[in-house]
Structure formats: structure tokens, C-alpha cells
Amino acid sequence: MSTASITRREVLQMGVTGLGAVSLGSLGGMLASPAPATADLRREVLRLTMREAMVEMVDLTQAYMWLFDDGNGPRFPGSVIYALEGERVDIAVTNELPGERDHAFEIPGVVHSGAIRPGRMRLVKFTAPPAGTYMYQDPLNAPLNRVMGLHGVFVSLPREGNTPYGVPTATVQELFDDFGVHEAFPGYPWQPEDTKIWVFSQIDPALNDAVRLDAALDGPTYARQFQPRYFTINGRSGYFASHAQDTYMASTVGHPHLIRNVNAGIWGHSPHTHANHVYVTAVNGRVQQNVLLLDTWTLNPGERFDVVFPFVKPPDIPDDTWARIIAGTHEEPFPMIYPVHCHMEITQTAAGGNYPQGAVTHIDILGPVDQVASPGNPPPGYPLEAHRGFDEHGGHQKMQQRQQFIE
Amino acid sequence: MPLPIVEREDIHDEVHFGVFSRNVPVFSLDRPLDPITPPDVLIRRRLHTIHQIGLPDDGSIEVWGIDDPDRDPADWGVFPSPLIRLAEGDLFHCDTDHEEEDEEEEDELDHGHSIHWHGIEPVTSSDGVPKNSFGVKDPEEMHDQYIYQWVARDAGTYFYHCHRNTPLHFEMGMYGGLIIDPHAPPDSELTAPYAAGGPGYVRRRDELTRYDVERFWISDEMDPRWHTLHEDAGLGGFPFDDSDPGLNIFEPEHYFISGVAQPLTRANPTVVARLRVGQTLLLRILCAGYGYHAWRLGLDAEIVAMDGRTLGRRGGGGAYNPYSQPFLLPADTPFELTTARRFDALVRPTEPGVFAAGFTARSINNGRPEPTGRAETFIIVDPEEE
Fold first, then answer.
1. Measured between CB atoms, does B7 come within 8 Å of chain A?
2. ipTM of the complex
3. Which of A37, A346, A381, B150 could form a disulfide with B122 if both were Cys (CB 3.0 to 4.6 A apart)?
């Protein structure tokens, strides 16, 4: 397999998800699939416009927000921008927000546009940084402009290798070399399609309304008064975040998945995976030497964590049970469904309650190691809604399956 | 011109939506799905026992428990709920039922409680997440029993908690420690699982290390307002519940280490660690609160495990962890944890003295970085025995 095809496959996968995506430079043209708000640019300028919009929360409350529009309408969060490590990136950012505030575009540690006056545009030119996960944001009046919605993920892809990084550490290289080879990881090597991006955001509609009405509200005051009522992953919460292809993971055993986590809010998060511990491969762009194996990690505001969910058999299932599940003679049918959620449980709420309509998604284990090295995320044609137990009576099909076994 | 609206998807199936949020299935079963018998360890637990615990200012606060019905009810009501301790490789069954509710308390919307074994990775039906499987509820409604089943594959520090309406039920104290011990070497007089407090064995990389004294320090804080709410407050449903019990607002007033309230933590003998020069202390530390807890230990410590996974370990079922290594936490260096994170640290004092330890808490809101509270204790090191 050519190295170029490896670097492009993550982009292809993103093209079929709900999270918007844009690919730049020599990656342009890779988003062949029709997808909402995507653009493929080859040696052209990506145009991002800052606009105001109303965003529907999980209970249909409308929250006033400031969003990036890539030409296909405002998006929350902003579309994922992909580029190839070392390539030139040109982004034209226009401030069409109301009022007299300046805005800006920044990838911390990489590029800062400088102030963009109301109604004006600035061309942001930079070289795509070392491969990894970055956040783009409006850094002015921090953290207000970012938390009002002006944030998204920038992914720099490596030119070669079998990891998400151009210069992996020895331990990260060893981990990716072991996937599908070492007996601890039966199945297949990591495939770039098997990547998730989780952007954690928090919304305080009343405070956002105050911003709309009071152009003088400063960032530190906003942060102190911040009392979010909605907690989203990729702009969705609860039921919707748990059933959206860009957030939930569904795979047979043996397809390790990279998860790029970013926290765009002001509150901390403590994401927790059920079913498997995860390997932490990069923190804020630093590829890790000491690759920890965790079930919960701290994701501070502005931070980026890359973790790999190995999709091994959940280890505390008795071997005999696992054999019977595979044989189809067990009361517990595939798929097995597990949550992934922030363990700072106050983020599992919406409008002050409504558990679990907050920052949660799902992991589905569809079966044992399959015979095909196709990506596991999700398999082509995977009937998400069918397996989740919809039927014409609206019953919980999986529960009925269990009941049948028991009766 | 109206602003553009970024729309949410429609709810296509209200029943399924309801299962996800509130209308969790329940059933009663006096065995696990696909039981393997006999288990190596069978314990019983009763969900949602209700108690008052005393506070240092002579007040009290309501907590809920996951209690052991085989103990004298006079001994119930410990907070946190009782420690569960297993030996590596044990096939574990937990026979779980539900406390009977008062008639007046009964509510047709009550769909009970569950036990999730945090860090343990079993089948869905033993994972204890009601929206993905089912809850265990009041015996009056004949949904009163389930037996969780899993194998204690990898030694380490875990915990368990109710995963029903979790923001409230976890805050109310429905959690406890869970330790899986490695087996002792053949020449040892000790047998796993070891007594709480030590001595025992823990892994450092793939080698067994003996410790003399052990403490399981669980940091937590409580917001008294939350402790007056109904158990279903803040539970979702369809249509959405607009009652707003304020579970996105957490303003703690009381701070705890392992259920002992500050400042009693400074002298409580189950919290204070005491050992001699030349001995080894194993600290297991868990954050069970809803803020940032910056732990400080007054002595150098070596962190040998995180989240139930031994750093640098090559063996083990789900614990293949050779890409990591133990690391030094220098004395008095803060190690900030968020909810559910834990680490195991070895402390080997070289001189006698009294060394401060404990945590300082701050809000989940990074816009309010000042401390909200703390709990303090000590590591007391006596001179070497003559």
C-alpha cells in the first residue's frame, strides 16, 4: 500500500459522517462521497466565514451561537480541516459577525491571523504542522469567542508510516506495529478509516443571549458566569450523539480505533470508555513516550488527546462465555453495547436534568475477529437502527431477544 | 432577517428514545445470563439503602448505599459502600437485590438501580448500565434480583457504582472500592485477597512487590442541596422534562477522604497512614467527586498503576501495557485527578516524620480556578524498629 493512500483514507472516512470536513492541498478531491458541508480543495483557498446562528439543543431549545461557515452553512462545531504535514495551507477568514468586535483565527502554536475587523477578511497562510490533532479557534476575548462556537478541529496527516504521526516515539511505533500482530491484539493493524473525532463543547444559552445583548462582556467574566445547560460531542448530545456515525464506534474485535478528543469548552471533562481501556498516544500534540493504558482521562479546556481504543475482547468476559457468544448459544447476543461518557456526571444532563442527554456516545462490539481486513468503522451498510432494537412496535428488540432465551 | 437555524435531528422512535433515557427495561432473574457455576466468589448486595451520616459540625446528610445484606443491618450505612476484594482470576458473582421502598415513596416511574463495575470490562448484561441492559428495582414490582458475573482478570484498583441516573446516585454515595489482588508468591504466608490496610502484594511491572501498609484514599465532596432530591430527579424521558432540578449546578460544602469528613481526616486511624522507616506503603487513590482534585503526598512516591492497569506490564488478559513505565511523583507535587481516575503509588520513607497528604478541590469550571475546599491527612513515619 502506498503511503499516500494511508494518509488519505482517514479523510475518505470522514466524508461520510455528519461532522463536516474539508481537505486541502494534495488531499483535495479525496472527499468523493456526498456529505453535508464538505469541500475539496486542491491548491485553492478555503473560505471560512464567521456568522451568527441559532443552534437547536437536544430538547429543541435554540441557543444563540457564533459559528464558522465553510460555504455550506454555519456548522457547530466547525468543519474538520485536513491537510498533509508540511504542505502550504491558505484559509481566508471573514468576520461577518454583528457589532464592533474584532475576531481572529488561530491554531495555537501554529498560526494566528491577527485581528479581523468587522466585515473584513484576512488570508491566513501557514505550513501544516507535524501530523496530529489540533484545534482551531477564535482566540480573542478568551475564552468567550471560542465557547460561543468559533472552534473546530484541524488534522495534520503524516506523509508516511503506519501511525497517525510523522515522527512517532519508539513506544507509539511499537504499539501500532503490534496491532494485528501481537497476540494481545488479534485482528488487524490500525486502518486510518478507523478514526473518530470527538469535539466536546458546552453551551450556556442564557449567557450567550447576554453576549448578544451586551457587546462589552469580557472573556474572564463570561468564564466565571459560565453555567452550561447542554454538553455536546460533535454538536450533538445524549441519544443523538449515541446514534450518529461520526461519534459512536461499531466494530468487530480486531479493528483498533483512533479517537481524537478535543475540549472546546470551559469546563473540564473526564471521558470514560466501557468495554476496553485506551492507549494514550498524544497529548496536546506531544506524541507520548510513556503510553498509558487508561479507562478515564482528563480533558482540559483547549486540550487535545489522541487515544486508541484497541477493540480487544472485553477482558473480564469469561472465556467460556465468550466462546458461547461466538457460537450463538449464549443469552447475550451480539452486538454488545457499551457507553462512552464523561464521568464528571454533571455533564450527562441537559436543561438541568434529563439524564443521560449529555456528553455520551456508544461503543458497539459487533462480533469476534472477522475474516476480512476491511475497516471496522462502521462496516459498509451497517444497519445501525435495526440492531439498536427498533421494530414496528417500538419495543426494545434486544431485551426481547434476551427474554426469549430466558423463557 | 432571521438567523439561520442549525437543526437537531428528529426523534424517529419515541419508545426507543424513552428506553435510552428513562423507561429502562427491568426483569428479575435469579442467575446471570448464561451462568457459569459455581463461582469462585459469590457475594450479595442490596441497592438503595438509605442512611444519615454525621458531619463534623454535628449536622448530618443523607447518603444512599449498596449494602451487604449478609451483614447485621446495624452495620449498614457505611459510606462509601463496603469494599469488595477479589483474587486475580476469580469468577465473581454478585447477587443483587433492591431495598423495599416505603409505600409513600413508591413511584411508578422508579426504575431502580444497578451496579457498574468501573474498569471491569464484562458483557453488556453484567456492565450495569440500565439503558443498555436493564435495572434492578423494588421487589414490590417483582423486578428485584439479578446476578452480575465476570472474571477478575487483572489485579488493580477499581470501584463500583450505581449507573442509574448516575449524576445523582453517584453523588449520593452509591459507590465503593473494588480491589483485585495478585496471588502471593508460593513461599508467602499471605493469601489473596489480602486484608484491607496491609500487608499484601502488588505488581510493579511484572514483578510482585510486598507492601506493609495500604490505604485506599477516595476523595469526594458533597453539595447538600443534591442530598434532598428524589431519586428520579433529573431523569430524562420523552417529552423532555422541564422541571430542572439543577443537576448542572454543583456547589460542594463537605469534603471527604474515604467517607471521613474533613477535618476528621487528619486523625482518623483508617485514613491516616502509619508505618516505619524501611517499610513500604501502598496508596490507592480514586477521585469520586465532580471537580478537579489535586492530590499531594508529602513524600516521594512511585506511581506503579493507573486505572487498574499495571504500568510496564507485559502479561495479563486485557492489561497488555508494555508501552508505559512506572514514574516518580516527587513529594508535594500536585497530581490532579478528575472523576473516576485513579492511581496506585508505592511510598518507601527513608526518615521518620509526619508528612502531610490530601487533596485540594477546584470547580469543574476552569473559569473559577480558585480552590473550593480540601481534605487533609498524614503519613506518619516512625523510626525503624530496633
1. yes
2. 0.96
3. B150
